[in-house]
Specification:
It contains 4 helices and 2 strands, in the order H-H-E-H-H-E. The chain has helices spanning 2-28, 35-49, 64-92, 99-113; strands at residues 54-58, 118-122.
């Protein structure tokens, strides 16, 4: 079932959301200071490309530097990417078939706002990194 949802997701919105994250990551990687933010954007972009069957969990040991980085991310790229998820999620929830896809978009909003200190893991192994 998750494969079918992922394919429908890819066609309707996953490809475009992934392109948004890749663009944000490329822009952030221009400066040396932005490279960690760019890597976070690339990581979330892959998650936005194929979200069903994966989840975001807190990374152990992420502390104050992740918080400061998340505040900078929120200002630089997170707000705009979250707006993309909100608008796409609302548009997908208009149809009955799109409701699970809209909810997946809403699931991506918190990680698009604050990605540092998170890891993307398979849903059958949510505690594999600990």
């Amino acid at each position: 079932m998750k494969t079918i949802l992922n394919v429908i997701w890819l066609v309707l919105c996953g490809f475009w959301m992934c392109l948004g994250y890749l663009l944000a990551g490329a822009l952030l990687c221009i400066t040396i200071i932005g490279i960690p933010f760019g890597f976070a954007a690339f990581r979330i972009g892959l998650y936005a490309l194929w979200p069903f069957g994966y989840t975001a969990v807190d990374r152990p040991g992420a502390g104050a530097p992740s918080f400061v980085g998340n505040v900078l991310w929120l200002v630089l790229a997170g707000w705009w990417l979250a707006l993309g998820h909100i608008f796409t999620g609302i548009a997908l929830c208009v149809t009955i078939i799109g409701i699970p896809l809209g909810f997946a978009n809403f699931k991506l909003i918190p990680i698009s706002l604050m990605p540092l200190g998170k890891e993307i893991v398979r849903t059958d192994q949510p505690f594999a990194t600990r």
